[in-house]
Amino acid sequence: MKLLRLAVAAVALLALDAAAAEAQQLQKISVGLLRLSSSGAVFIAREKGYFREQGLDADLKIMTAAQQVPVAVTSGDADFGVTGLTAGFFNLAGRGALKIVGAQSREEKGYQLNAYMVTNKAAEGGFNSLKDFAGKRLAVTTTGSTFHYSIGILAAKYGFDVKSVTLVPLQSLPNMAAAFKGGQVDATIAPVTVARQLEAEGAGRIIGWVGDETPWQLGALFTSPKAIAERRSTVEKFVRAYAKGAHDYHVAFNARDMTKPAGAQEVRGPGYDEAIGILAKALEQPAERVRVGLPYVDAEARLNVGDVYNQVAFWQSQALVDRTVDARAILDLSFVKGHFNVPR
Amino acid sequence: MSDTRDVPFRGGGFVVVPKRGAAVAAFVLLIALWEVSVRFGWISPIFLPSPGSIVQAFVELVSSGTLWKHIGQSLHRLAFGWSIGTLGGLALGFAIGVWSLSRAVGLPLVSALFPIPKIALLPLLILWLGIGESSKVATIALGVFFPTAIATFSAIDGVPRNLIRMGQSFNLPAADVLRKIVLPGALPGILAGFRITASIGLILLVSAEMIGAEYGIGAFILQAGNLMQTDQLLAGVVMLSVLGLLIGTGLTRLERWLLRWR
Prior knowledge:
The complex is a heterodimer of chains A (about 350) and B (about 260).
Chain A: H1 2-25, E1 27-34, H2 40-47, H3 50-53, E2 56-63, H4 68-75, E3 80-84, H5 87-94, E4 99-103, E5 105-106, E6 114-119, H6 120-124, E7 137-140, H7 146-158, E8 166-169, H8 173-181, E9 187-191, H9 192-200, E10 204-209, H10 210-213, E11 219-223, H11 225-230, H12 232-253, E12 256-257, E13 265-266, H13 272-283, H14 287-291, E14 296-297, H15 305-317
Parallel strand pairs in A: 1-2, 1-3, 7-8, 7-9
Antiparallel strand pairs in A: 3-11, 4-11, 5-14, 6-9, 6-10, 12-13
Chain B: H1 20-39, H2 51-64, H3 66-98, H4 100-113, H5 122-129, H6 133-157, H7 161-169, H8 174-208, H9 217-226, H10 230-258
Helix pairs in contact in B: 2-10, 3-4, 3-6, 3-8, 3-9, 5-6, 6-8, 7-8, 8-9, 8-10, 9-10
């Protein structure tokens, strides 16, 4: 009897030991990101153990504003970052603090992510087309934000001067919504959840979607040049796990039926329910809210490289990013195969 | 009995003696140390831009002509917001300090409303007042109003009761008691409140200019922060500091003049 107990204890100890050894073998890394479905690849890869497969123990550092993510990677608080690309990001990256290694989400035709909205008053005044932005007041979160770039490429598409649009920076989505509701601005570009809410309240109308008009590389996966130089294999492992998560995301969410007269219709792919469950848990939101506004995420984390070049050029033309910043120098295209639209 | 000895004067020290050069020397030393640490690479310029690059950012602002626009707009908002908040605060503070009924009503109101962060109210202020000047001025006025009210009634409470009683026993009319005893007696406390509210006004400038401001020191700081242009951000912060210093000096002058009877 005593012997048996001893044996059980010994086995238990051994098992404990093995678990401890495994935990020790796993390399600790941290990822800075926001609780948004555009970072879905990270949440899926973590939940499904893809980081563990690569021998990584990924610690998620949840931030509350896109601006904090590149700052956290610069300061060394996070090893990797995934978030939207802004003028502030390029200013930091241009000083040699960051390198883009893969893609996050994209604005893509058929994906309702950000809407152009006009107030009722502006619509009655004849502002009903995307060509009419010139001379109007547009509420944005901040100068240099993704919304600012969205109006920039819309201006290039329809041939109006982006400087003729009066940008009203209001620093936060609630402020932006309040100014829109109060008719203080003529238009805004709002994320789908905010846009649907504003429309439901009768504050204004959606006149188009950014993805349908001007597809662009909204977000990226990045790390520090130091990590690439000193721990290249870790970066490779991370990108591999991330791309596997992105692949699952792609299979579950990216399919669209473009044949319907009402426009693109969502098609639920294999693993849809599981992926929605993972995102709902990670975003701490009900599944119904996650279902609305799932962005396009490339299946292999491939970047629209030409658009990143274009972003840098646009910010420089607006004197918001330093002239010395070189898009080529802030990209490292060696971790993911098949980046597209690569300028020569 | 005749055991006497000399006692040296022990009352020295604890007296403020003006040391003119010390402050300047400390500033110069600190800035030089900062510049050197960045130059020699002890501190990365990404984390802390050198004083030189801040000056550079400043020079660019001056040469592009936007500096005066920023300062002008901010001073305008500050002047209006602070004046409105101060006048309101003085009125409420006096009412609370002098009449028991208004104290019974006003004191709990002030306690309840003062701790509300003004930034949390921004969406509401935008709905009520729009995104023009009025909501920016209101943000500053609201922030200044409550501390002024509190400083005022505390200062009135601090006026020695025996002086008031004396005035009353000499049969001074109530208006004279207020004008000749209460007001001068409360003035030092009220002016100390001004010092605090002037700084609060400067701090709130940044919040106020979150509301769709194109120009203004706060708007400039916010934009520089959003764009991660840390040298410009610090140039904006230096502007606020200098403004604070100037206003502080002005208040010292005002204090000296108003309190010359002391």
